[in-house]
Amino acid sequence: MSFYTSLNGLKNAQSSLGTIAHNIANSETYGFKRGRTEFAEIVAGSALSNPRTIQGIGSSVEAITQNFSLGPIEQTGSALDMAITGDGFFTMRGENGGTLYTRAGSFTINESGGIVDNDGNRLQAYAVDANGEPTSNALQDVQIPVTNAAGAEYAGVTVGSDGVIRASYADGSNEPVGMVALATFMAPNGLKPVGSSNWESTGFSGAASYGEPGNGQYGALLSGSLERSNVDIAEELVGLITAQRNFQANAKAIDTATQISQTVMNLRT
């Protein structure tokens, strides 16, 4: 019994080490959220067992939870680098038509005037009128016209704290082209990480609730800034030492059980 109990402990310690290593590896990844391995005790007993003698048989990995606390904000100066000051997520439409959510607000303009991330996923926004007010709750790709109605060429773009994207043109005019839509979830820990600091919604997270930047829990936008990883290297190194000691202790328990078994087998009648 002690072999399997300690073997479970080794596997759990290995899972903890893997999670910490993943956190450390992404300490410089924009929009990354650190994970934490949580364990649960395993006990074995029946309805007829004496509750005072029920024996524990180890532990198991109960969950690897994500910590969605706000990471440090780094100023970059690029208008399409955006950080969220609240709980919101940027919404993107993937190449396959799927919906992705991210906190990494590093966007650029592609050759057709769309606002995309480094993988080509398109930022989603609300359509707006000439005053920058949303005209619909439907989400759509942001599209910046190459020229305005007067024929003037595109000159630049700005994003306000209210999420309104305004394109400027060579004739000095500024035209709103959309308002960044932010999503929140009832249980963000239920989001499924899919890589590149992106998540997908699941039944555990619940459906996304969409809103405007600067409104309630969604948070305002900081243009010219990016949210860094919320990994604390010092904290992770302490956790790494703890997980290593846990692994060593379980390995020692297996070694001790082996010695006891060997002693029993060597008994002579």
Concise synopsis of the structure shown:
The protein is α+β, with helices and mostly antiparallel strands and 269 residues long. The protein is built from 2 helices and 19 strands.
Question: What is the fold's blueprint, element by element?
Answer:
Elements: H1 2-25, E1 35-44, E2 55-66, E3 73-75, E4 82-84, E5 89-93, E6 99-102, E7 108-109, E8 115-116, E9 122-128, E10 134-141, E11 154-159, E12 164-169, E13 174-180, E14 182-184, E15 192-195, E16 198-200, E17 209-211, E18 221-223, E19 225-227, H2 233-265
Antiparallel strand pairs: 1-2, 3-19, 4-18, 5-6, 5-9, 5-14, 6-16, 7-8, 9-10, 9-13, 11-12, 12-13, 14-17, 15-16
Helix pairs in contact: 1-2
Explain this structure.
- It comes from Alteriqipengyuania abyssalis.
- A flexible structure which links the flagellar filament to the drive apparatus in the basal body.
- Pfam families: Flg_bb_rod, Flg_bbr_C, LlgE_F_G_D1.
- By secondary structure, the protein is α+β, with helices and mostly antiparallel strands.
- The chain contains 2 helices and 19 strands.
- It has 2 domains: 102 residues, no CATH class; 155 residues, no CATH class.
- The strands form 5 sheets. Strands 5, 6, 9, 10, 11, 12, 13, 14, 15, 16 and 17 form an 11-stranded antiparallel beta sheet that branches. A two-stranded antiparallel ribbon has the order 1-2.
- Strand 12 and strand 13 form a beta hairpin.
- The protein is elongated, with a radius of gyration of 26 Å.
